[in-house]
Every structure is written in C-alpha cells, then in structure tokens.
Design a protein that fits this description.
The complex is a heterotrimer of chains A (330), B (334) and C (299). With 334 residues, chain B is an alpha/beta fold. Chain B is built from nine helices and twelve strands. In chain B, 29% of the residues lie in helices and 25% in strands. In chain B, strand 1 and strand 2 (37-53) form a beta hairpin. The two termini of chain B are 23 Å apart. Chain C has a single domain (68-297), classed as MetI-like fold (Orthogonal Bundle). The chains are: A alpha/beta (330), B alpha/beta (334), C mainly alpha (299). Chains B and C meet through helix 2, strand 6 and helix 3 of B and helix 8 and helix 9 of C. The structure holds adenosine-5'-diphosphate (2 copies), iron/sulfur cluster (2 copies) and magnesium ion (2 copies).
Amino acid sequence: MTTSTTENTSPVVLQVDGLKTYFETRWGTVKAVDGVSFNLRRGETLGIVGESGSGKSVTMLSLMRLIPEPPGRIVDGQILLEGQDLVQMTDKEMSGIRGSQIALIIQDPMTSLNPVFSIGNQVGEAIKIHQDIPKRTVVQQVLDVLRKVNIPAAETRVRDYPHQMSGGMRQRVVGAIGISCEPIVLIADEPTTSLDVTIQAQYLKLLKELQEASNIGLIFITHDFGIVAKMCDRVAVMYAGRIVEMGDVRDIFNNPSHPYTEALLASVPKLEEDVDRLYSIEGQPPTLHDLPTGCPFAPRCQYVMDKCQTTYPTQFDVSDSHYAACWRLE
Amino acid sequence: MTTLEANPVTQTTNEVLLEANGLKKHFPVTKGLLVSKVTGWIKAVDGVSFQVRAGETLGIVGESGCGKSTTAKMLLMLEEPTEGTIEYQGQEIHNANAEQRRAYRSSVQAVFQDPWSSLNPRMRVRDLIAEPMVINLNLSRREMQDRVGKLLNDVGLSSYHANLYPHEFSGGQRQRLAIARALSVEPRVIVLDEPVSALDVSIRAQIMNLLMDLQNEYNVSYLLIAHHLATVRYMCDWVAVMYLGQIVEYGRTKELFDNASHPYTKALMNAALPSHPDIEQEEMILTGEVPSPLNPPEGCRFHPRCPFVMDQCSRDIPQVTELEPGHIVSCHLY
Amino acid sequence: MAADATLVVQQPAAPARIARKLWQFRRWPLIPMFFLVLFVFTGIFAPLIAPHDPERGGLRDRNLPPAWEAGGSSEFLLGTDHLGRDMLSRVIFGARISLAVAGVTLGVGMVIGVASGLIAGWYGGWLDEFLMRIVDIKLAIPTILLALVLVLALGQSFLIIVAILAIAVWPRFARNVRGEVLQLKTMDFVALAKVAGASTPRILFIHIFPGVINTLIVLATLEVGIVILLESTLSFLGAGVPPPTPAWGSMVSDGRDRLAVAWWISTMPGLAIMLVVLSMNLFGDWLRDRLDPRLRQLN
Ligand SMILES: Nc1ncnc2c1ncn2[C@@H]1O[C@H](COP(=O)(O)OP(=O)(O)O)[C@@H](O)[C@H]1O
Ligand SMILES: Nc1ncnc2c1ncn2[C@@H]1O[C@H](COP(=O)(O)OP(=O)(O)O)[C@@H](O)[C@H]1O
Ligand code: SF4
Ligand code: SF4
Ligand SMILES: [Mg+2]
Ligand SMILES: [Mg+2]
C-alpha cells in the first residue's frame, strides 16, 4: 500500500468502503458522509483532517455505529472490521464489539473522568462491560492496564479519585480506559483541541506510546496539520463529506495535489520560518444541505475550471499510494 | 514599582504609545457565607512591564491561565490594577481626569476571541459598528452611515450588510464585524485577545491577513494575545512570553525565535506542533501542569517543571537580564 | 440536490400555498388566543357591547334563567341575578375590571420587578443581597393572607387592590430578571460596550434590557392568570374592588347562596374566570416554549 521507506505490511484490520451517512433535517438531506473509503493496518496511524462540519465526527460515529437514528442513517457502504461488516450487525452484536474491538477517545482527557468514582472503578467498568469475568480477574486486569500506561504504584492509585491525580495521570487513565479491552482499532476524535500546548505534547506522546506498545490501528481525527505531521503515517483530507485527497503523510506535505490541501497547508503560519504572507482561502466552508453540483471546493478554488462547476471530480492517482479528487489531475 | 531593568532598551525609532510598568492584578479568594473573609489572593498578573509601539504589534504568549486576558482587561480599563501603572503617551491613565480617561478609551479598542459572544445579537450591524462613534464622536447621521459603509468595505464586507443582524453571519464574518467596530473610532491601539482561535482553520489566515492590512492602512498598533506560537511569529514585531502571571522572556520576534533563551520559551517551542513531518523536534516535554496562581512556587515560578533547575532557583527570584539590546530574560542561567 | 432547490423556488399552486400557510399555524394555540382576544375586546369596549346597565336592574326581572332555559327571556341572554341585573352585561363589565386590574398591576409590578432585578443583577454586592432577601421573604408569605391584612388595615379601593397585587407579582419578575442580567453581564459584548466608553445606563438599557424582554413577555402572560385569580379570590372574599362594581369574583360570591335556585349567577362569572385563566396559561406556555425554553424549569 505504501511506498515510503517505512512500508507497513501488517494486515489490514479496518476497511471502509463507500460509506454514506445522511441526516434528514428540515433543510433537507444533509449528506454528512458521502462515499468515504479507506483502510487501516495494524500499528498504523491514519489522520483524518478537515474543517469543522466536513464530516469527520460523523465518519467516526458511523464506524462506532453511534449515529443518532433518526435523524441520521448509514445509507450505504461497508465497514469491515477484520472481515466482519459492522453495518450489517444488530445493535446487540455491535455493543459487544464497541469498546472492546473498536474503541473511542473523544473528549478532553482532563474532564472526561467521572469525579465521584475511583479510577479503579472507572477502568474496571470499561473492562466488565465487555467481558464476563470474576471480580478478582477484573482487579488484576485493571492493575495491568494501569501499569501499561505507566501509572506508578498502581496498587495504591486505583483507589484514588480523579481530583487526587495530576493532569498527566488523568490523561493516562483516560488512555487506559481506551485500551483496556485491547481494541484492534482506536479512534481519537480531536482529543487535544482544548489542551494547552505543553499538555497536548504530553498527551500526544502517550497516545503514540500506547499505540506502539499494543500495535493498535489508530485513527486520529483533527483539524490541525501540525498534529498530522507529528502523529500520522497516512492522511485523508475531508471536504464536504468526502475524502478529497489521501496519501502518505510525506506525500501530502511535499506534494499536496488537491487545491484544498495545498491551500490549507499554505494558510497555516509556520513556527520554524518567517512567512511573508499567508495564502488566504477565500469564502467559507460549504453548508452540506446546499452543496453546489460539481466540485464542492469550486467556489473557493484558485484553479477552478468550467468542468469543475458541473461534474464531481473522480479520483486520480498521483502515485500508487496517493490520490486526489480534482480535475486538474486529469 | 518601576523596575528600570524591566524596560527593554531598544533602537527602534517608533514612539512608545502604551507602556505597562510592574502591572499586578490580585483577585481575593473569599470564604464564608454571611461575612466573607479573604483567605488568599490569586496572583493572576504579578508584575508585568511591556511597551506597545506605534504601528507595531506586541504579542503575548503563554498557556491558559497565565494572566494574558487579565493583562488585556487592565489595559482596557475593565479591571483596576492592584499595583503598577499604565501610561498612554506618557500619561498615567488610572489616576487621570475624566477627560483624559475618555480620550484614552476611544484610543484603545478591543477584539475578543468568541465572535458569538462579542456582538449583541439584538442590534443591527449598523448600530453595532456605530456604537463607539455614537458614544465618542460628534457626527451627523449621514457621516456615521458613510463611515459604517466604508468600514464594512475595509473589512471585506459590503455596505448592504449594515441592515442585517449578527446571527446572519458566519464566525469569520462576525470577527470582521468586530474588527470594523473596533476601528470605527480610529484608535491608536487595538487589543486582540485570541482573535482567530475560535475560527475555522481555512478562515484564520483571512483574518490574520486582514488585520495586517488594516494595520498599515490605519496605522494602528496591536497587542495580540495568543497561545499559538506560529501565529505570534507571523503577526508580531515583539513577543512577551508569560508564565504564571509574569513575563519570563521578552524581545523582538526574530531575535526571540532565533535565540529562545528561557527554558519555558524553549519548552513551548518544542511542544508546538511541527509544520512538516520531517522536522525533528528536540524531546523536551514538560512534566506536570502550570501550578495554581493562588500559591505560586517560591523563587523562580517555573522551577518545579524546569529541566535546568538549579539549587538557587527554588530560593531566589531570578533577576531580569538583558541578553541583547531589547531581548530580556529572567532566569538564573543568565 | 439542485433539483430540490429549484422545486422550492417554484411557486406552488394557490390552494397548496394556502394550505402551507395554514399548516404553519398548526401548533398555534388558536382557541386560547381567540378567547384572549375576546376578553380584551370586551373589556375595552364593554359600554358599547353590554346590552344593559350592569349596576341597575328591575325587581320584576329577578333571578331570570338564561335564554335557553324554560322561563328565560331573549332580552337577558345569560339570565339575571337576584337584583334583576343582566348577567351578560355584568360578565362583560367584569371583564373590564379584571382587565384593568391585571393591566395596571402587571404594569406596576413589572416596572418595580425589572428595576430591582436590573439593579441587583448589575451591581451585585449588598444591594443584591438586600433585594433578594426581600424577594425571599415576600415569596414565603401567602399572598391572600397578606392581602386580607392590608385591606383590613388600609381599606378597600381599586388603587389599594392594585397596589396589593403589584406587591404580589413583582418578586418573580425581579428574580428572573436578575438571573438573566447575571448571565448577560458576562457576555463579551457588554465588556466591549464598556471599552467603547458606554455609560452604565446605556449598557443597562441598550445591551442588557433588550435581552430580558423575551423573559418578561413570557412571565407576564403567565402572571396575568395568577393576578386575575387573585383578584377574583379577593372579590369573592369581599376584599376586592368594592361593590356595586361588577367584579367576577364578587359575582361568584353573590350567587353562591342561590346555587340551588339560580345556578347561573355563580356559574357564568366562574366560567369566565376559568376560560380566561386557562387560555392565558395555555398561551403563556406556548409563548414560553417559543421564546424562552429555559424558563420551563420555573413555576
Ligand atoms: N445529529 C445530527 N443531525 C443533523 N445533522 C448532523 C447531525 N450530526 C452532524 N450533522 C451534520 O453533519 C455534518 C458533519 O458534522 P461533523 O461530522 O460533526 O463535522 P466535523 O468534521 O466537524 O466533525 C455537519 O454539517 C452537521 O451539521
Ligand atoms: N475575576 C476573577 N476572579 C478571580 N480569578 C480570576 C478572575 N479572572 C481571572 N482569574 C484567574 O486569573 C488567572 C489568569 O486568568 P486569565 O487572565 O484569564 O488567563 P489567560 O487569559 O492567560 O488564559 C486564572 O487563574 C484565572 O482563574
Ligand atoms: S476539481 Fe476544480 S474546483 Fe475542484 S479542486 Fe480541482 S480544480 Fe478546484
Ligand atoms: S531560574 Fe532556574 S528554574 Fe527558573 S527557568 Fe531559569 S533555570 Fe529554570
Ligand atoms: Mg467533530
Ligand atoms: Mg484568555
């Protein structure tokens, strides 16, 4: 799949094909996710980048089968987790898989723990939901997982309440809950947006360590290309519910082939060098219930052509591990 | 509390417009239901000095809670300083007479972070933008209307927007409206408190570029508060790095980014995200969190987290050292 | 998607358009609104509508039943009372009293409540503490009891009744307005108004007050029912607007000994009270949900 030097040949654990998730609203059908396909290997980090409203969270909720129904519905597509199609599963089957094989970290790690339960309790709860095991074993597993995330003196700290722990420790507990059932795929939906830079750096490092230690497939959802640069092996850029460009992280940064990716990268100030003037993308992100025909980026695109107004661009390969959906590549 | 050393000596020719000297803000912590007793002080800002020069931008960076917004509020006269002075064109403002305070108010305007909270949802754009003019200037309706139209054009909107209400605009457009309002009385200084943090990524560059264009056009100075170092590097001429209510390093942007000296500045730079996957960063991840400003650490406030901590750091408050003309740092290493 | 968009732009046929217009009103409380409009209208134009003088009757016409009952006369549609006065005219003039009392009371109560709420919320500190304790005390005393004591002490007149009822309604306004102000004053636009040099009155009236108007409207509609009930209760107890003015409450009271022989004397004004209060509450609930759903936790 990848051509870079660090070629990942591990088995594909998650394969998403033509996923479409629509919402019926009073403005009409919102095609929040409209034909998204990608796959994920063990030990790989896939970044999903895009602005707010581009469909990142809905993609993630679809993978977890957590779309509120109604108004939402997975209209089409397959989500194959180690060969089994999550879209076809009953709710009951799905609740056995959710959290145990495919897990999720959404919120800010500093606030997502319940203040009235001890941390042992909260990690134990996450384990008990999915495994029917005796209490003694649960306690043992809680200690194991706390040690795995490097919480010192786990035996005594299991009885602590969140407020008795430092922020770094709390992050570790949230991480521990995420991996407590040894998931195959872990999804992190903007877990660091509300954090300060130094705390964010700590948390990103922890997530990376956890992933490497357990060889998990990690999907990192963000709007920040900096996080992508730091964390990800491959990147999918989303715009208006579709993936407009996908490739190895270096391909995306060195050779952005979709005008949106190119513009976004050029519009972010750099820490390492002086930039005279940032590229500024005109206009606003589109509203999904009122998309133009043709390329949804056309109203903001500096390379727009006649064809772009009428027909949605098909995918063009830039290299065998890099494609973009833009008529310029035709 | 005028620490002479704290005033960076510089070679620039631009006049100093606004100057803070040993500015402090301590909030009382009270206890008790009926008769409240002060049990401690939150030292939100604890002795900061800086200068805003004509037509230039001073950036203040630091993690949340380090006192950036409180500093801004003191400059905007929304909070009374506990100690220290603010001088505008050489005139101390908190003890000035009513006329001078009035003049100061219309010379220093502000744009805040949250574009949803900073525009009154029940006022039309026309009245929102005109409000500072209505209060401070003596203009006819006609002149006012013309100026609103011009301001809307200057911030990239059009005059027909004047009749709409704020909720009819997107976040980026609302921030443009807030900027137009701040510019309406042609202030000399605008305090920008995290002006792009709440916006979509693709909109941030629009607003940053707009602010820089308007700076040239209106010859206005900015005090830009941000937590994102790259934003500061892009927009500012001067940078002050704050930690727990104090400025730990201060200098010209280029100098400061090329020769970051204070361990906290270095840590911030290392923690900041790279702009390319091939950029190797030094591993210097700080442990722990920012301590509470209620009981800041003794000696150097950064010492519990500092990788270069020495014996004296927990004892003695570091002096301000001038490394280069205009580049100052307060750390025992220098 | 584009096809849908063009469909919306096309003008639908006339019947469809009318149907759509009507469909918009499906959730409106049309029946309550009809009764309220009727109430206000009759209250204002009572002298023009009422077929007879409400305060004078002929002894020959005593206790006549409503027109549809045996022995009823088409001259007195709702019958007459024990003094031969026309019930319909009395109910119509009763609406006038209720409307006047409710209107003036709410006006006065609202002004006091809004003013103290604005001051308490904006200035805070001991002023806030003081005003809110008064509100607490007021809300802890049963209104009827307070009213009876005051009427005994001060006498019975329209003005006194209005004053008593205003005392009864202002605390709720004060408390809600204060809560709203506490929230509004933390908004950035208030800080920015200060930065622009706005004076405190300007901030209070231009930036804060418009933000509490929705709450006020909702609260007022909910309070109208309470005021009308209170006024009727006071009249019923003989502590209301003094006779012979036809207040609904005193009319109910007049008829209560004659329920067996002339049920209509109590029932007609009683029905009027019920209809108005119920309509007001239904309308108020609907308005609250539309304008200010947060108020749902109250009351
Ligand atoms: N429950 C819902 N009902 C209706 N529309 C929704 C719902 N959840 C999300 N959407 C729509 O789906 C689109 C994508 O949202 P989301 O995936 O949350 O974006 P983001 O990329 O910021 O995570 C948005 O336009 C949003 O309005
Ligand atoms: N009105 C206040 N009362 C008490 N503490 C306050 C008040 N305003 C700010 N603080 C405290 O002062 C510190 C600095 O706050 P702030 O200036 O908002 O930081 P920043 O803008 O850098 O994030 C924080 O610890 C905050 O909790
Ligand atoms: S398809 Fe056309 S409008 Fe869309 S990104 Fe490519 S060039 Fe721009
Ligand atoms: S004074 Fe000491 S503790 Fe403080 S920053 Fe310098 S070296 Fe670190
Ligand atoms: Mg999201
Ligand atoms: Mg702040």
